[in-house]
Amino acid sequence: MDIKPKFYLRDKNTDKTTSIQLVVNFNNQKLKYGTGIRIKPILWDQATFRPSTDKNVARKLDPSLKKELSIIKNRLDIISKQVKKRYAYLLEQEIYPSAEELRNYLDENLEWKLAKPKAKVHSLISYFEAYISEMHTGKRTTDTGKRFAEGTIKNYQGCLTQFKDYQSKKRKKLQFEDVTMDLYDNLVEFFNKKDYSPNTIGRHMKNLKTIMRAALEEGLHENKEFQRKKFKTIKVDTTEIYLTEKEVKALFNLDLSKNKEQELIRDVFLVGVYTCQRYSDYSRIKETNIETTSNGTKIVKLIQKKTGTEVQVPIRAELETILKRYNYNLPKTYEQRVNKAIKNIAKMVSIDNEIQIEKIKGGLKVKTSISKHDLIKTHTARRTGITNLYLAGIPTLAIQKLSGHKTEVNLLKYIKVTKEQNADILARHHYFTQPLKVAK
């Protein structure tokens, strides 16, 4: 159920400025909220509930007033978005929203935007820093009202470091108005000289566009160059591998009892395979995550850190063996160490067939081959588990429930099946195995 926030003037007949009120009707309730924003009725459009965009009106306005109307519109859009977001979040948490709850939320989360002196934000970089700070504190949330995951914040922090480096090299303080196609081309060239992949460059550009869009919505600038088609987020397919069931079994059966650190890293990786979760989730499994369903099925129950989605994973025999080894409390590991060590461990069981890959570095396409074990990382565990479940004939909907993917489209990106494997799967289907019926 969605809500439709609308804005009305307190006095639409006055020739002076009047306050704009937010009105939301939902579930037999009405929220009336003073936005703290004022406007002259002659500049207001009753049909759109926003400042007028009539060209005849615009011609009579001086540039400063045009900018003010743009700021008002952006602020009203922010309020509308925040109300919708909070309402949806409460419903998701199975909390019955009330007008008072929405009012309190607006008081706590919008007043600072409306009253905060813009002089505090002097540049693109300082706004970027403030944006990340608010991600950390929870003041800035996702579109669904949830706090940002640590990995997402780390991603933005890394991006900010790169833009600071660019700013330092160019000896120029970046302003919102500097974000043009020229800057885009200069940044791509700058990242190519660092031998960054297209996807890394694309991720930085995507974050820049997010920052610019947020600042635009808050009325801090009017630069829309970042919305042009040419200001694109670069993305290319990458070589992502998975381990076969045979390779997974070889890792499981490898005796590492004389090297406890390697044994732990191998075990944590395999927990990722058997649960199909992200490292941030499978590496923190504790005894409290182990439950039994009403039908007696032993499961690992997790709330995913990135999405907040609850998943329930049946515990297969190998997973049970590993968890028992640590009394169902996996010791703390570090992703960087796991990424480094799992490659060497995989090499011990001869996961070393050559993989042909194509990379773009520094803007140039390079073809090379690399041993499979060198491509293994923590996320390979999730991809391996999902792919092997699919190859085992488990329906994608069931896998999706287990992996926590929101859509089947996103799930299918994880399934790494060759045309030959797909043919083998189809060959086992009753459509291909049914006996020939000859008409008499």
Q: How would you describe what is shown here?
A:
There is one protein chain. The protein is built from 18 helices and 10 strands. The chain has a 3-stranded antiparallel β-sheet. A 3-stranded antiparallel β-sheet has the order 6-7-8. A two-stranded antiparallel sheet has the order 4-5. The protein has 440 residues and is α+β, with helices and mostly antiparallel strands. The chain has 3 domains: 115 residues, no CATH class; 118 residues, DNA polymerase, domain 1, CATH 1.10.150; 183 residues, Intergrase catalytic core (hpI Integrase, Chain A). Helix 5 packs antiparallel against helix 6. It is globular. The chain is 48% helix and 13% strand.
Give the radius of gyration: 27 Å
Order of helices and strands: EEEEEHHHHHHHHHHHEEEHHEEHHHHH
Low-pLDDT residue spans? none
**Structural class, from helix and strand content?**
alpha+beta
Estimate the mean pLDDT confidence. 85
Q: What is the percent of helical residues? A: 40-55%
| Total strand segments | 10
What's the structural domain tally? 3
Number of helices: 18
Percentage of residues in DSSP E strands = 5-15%
In the CATH hierarchy, what is the superfamily of the largest domain?
A: Intergrase catalytic core
Tell me the overall shape.
globular
For this structure, the CATH topology of the largest domain is hpI Integrase, Chain A
- How many angstroms separate the termini? 59 Å
What spatial order of strands do you see in the largest sheet?
1-2-3
What CATH architecture of the largest domain would you give? Orthogonal Bundle
CATH level 1 name of the largest domain: Mainly Alpha
Largest sheet: 3 strands, antiparallel
